[in-house]
Amino acid sequence: MAILKIKVYPDDILRKKALVVTKLTEEDKNLIRDMVETMYASDGVGIAAPQVGVSKRIFIANPTGEKGKELIAINPRILEKSGKEVLVEGCLSLPNISAEVKRYKKVVLKFEDMEGKEKIINANGLLARIIQHEIDHLDGILFIDRINIFKRLKLLRKLKRKI
Question: Which of the following is catalytic: 70, 89, 112, 134?
Fold first, then answer.
């Protein structure tokens, strides 16, 4: 296992729609293990494959931080969503900035696990938020795209000063 380099805005891969995983390979399984290790090493609660430079529809989420309790989602899709709330979010690919983002409180997620089995889960709270944030990464969307343009420009100026 290895800690992977996290792609930081404005890296092009962060703006591209990730590709569907047709058949999970051993290489993909190694990538997933490395993504888990990278997420923990970076103090993250979620990470998507494009954030480590791989255009595949895979993400990891773990709101508890407890190792072994990761949600590993391959080809994820939100089937239902309900309720809304505004909370502060950050992102490993946008270091040292955060903003209030409106997201759904509850989601129903369909995905494939590491064995290729289709699963459906109900998620709420922080897990629902992480799922939406990571699926955005798979679609080339960053959390700053979901905020007011003036706040976004201010945050991007702040980010450029830190790079």
Answer: 134
Report field, pTM of the whole predicted structure over 0.70: yes
The answer on pLDDT for 158 being more than 70 is yes
Quick one: fold of 12-84+106-141?
A: Peptide Deformylase (3.90.45)
For 82-104, write each residue's pLDDT tens digit.
999 999 999 999 999 999 999 99
CA separation for the pair 121, 101 (Å, rounded): 23
User: Residue 163's pLDDT band (boundaries 50, 70, 90)?
Assistant: low
Closest to 50 (Cα-Cα) out of 25, 16, 75, 22? 16
In order of 33, 37, 91, 102, 106, the CA distances from 27 in angstroms are 10, 15, 26, 36, 33
* Domain regions of the chain by residue span: 12-84+106-141
Buried b (16+ CB within 10 A) or exposed e, 108-135: bbebbeeeeeeeeeebeeebbbbbbbbb
89 labelled catalytic: no
The 8 Å CB, 24+ separation contacts for 151-156 are 151/99, 152/99, 155/94, 155/97, 155/99, 156/9
